[in-house]
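Hey, can you fold this one?
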Amino acid sequence: MRDIAALRRAIVQHHAAAFPGFPPQPAPAPASTEPVYQAALQACSDLGFVAHDAECLARAWQARALRTGHFAPEQWPHEPQDFGLQTLPRAHGFAACPQDLGLYAVLPDAQWVGRMARAGVPTVQLRFKSDDPSAVAREVAAAVQAVQGTPALLFINDHWRQAIAAGAYGVHLGQEDLDALLPAELHALRASGLRLGVSTHGYAEMVRADAVGPSYIAMGAVFPTTLKKMATVPQGVGRLSVYARLMRSYPLVAIGGIGAEQFAEVLATGVGSIAVVRALVNAPDPEAAARTLMAHMEQNTD
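Sure. Predicted structure:
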């Protein structure tokens, strides 16, 4: 076995071109003395992965080396068993949703939800922000009513209790919201039959999401976005591609700063859905914008 420094260089040399533009990150303290683990931990930090993702990758690299009996620096880890993901069929999982959710519109209120559902957008999400529980309940119920008579699938952002009460198709949670659920609440959400989408921003969060078996996994932000302050830097298409390969058994949604001109390269990674916000809400003619974006989806998924 070569020394750790040589293994580290080999990994970086083979994969630096795939992840351009990320500054090196401080390597976390190693949790193992295994050479492959230590080399991968340092190399992934060199490639710009934050500490918890570098640690996740290092464990996967070591697991693969133990499983296969050799070290392959040219092969990026992508097998679910090396990351400890659930085997199929999953022991813990939410109700299924379509593998390809198509154009996914994230919208601020029920009026917008109805408008885009009637325009033919196949998947819509209500992202309604309010501290008033009564206002939230009314808006969620109105959104459920707004998609009646259309084939649109409606997900509710954050407000899972109101989503259950109103009979929505599904709910979407961020990592913090998922982590905050008590076991009994998670059980109630799964037992309701609602589909669950979960936001992820890297390897460690994808592994954490897999533990609950969501209906789909959202990955981003792919490109810079001004919609909200992001805890992580834009992931880029290179990272999105390896994320999608690892999580290929899930329906996948790419989100974050994606415009029509980027649909082809994003869909080429293997994701089956692209979420948009400003491309519709800020468009002079949102219905026309929706038709254009859906045409781009069709052109690049044939």
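The chain has two domains: 4-73, 102-299. Let me know if you want another pass with a different chain boundary.
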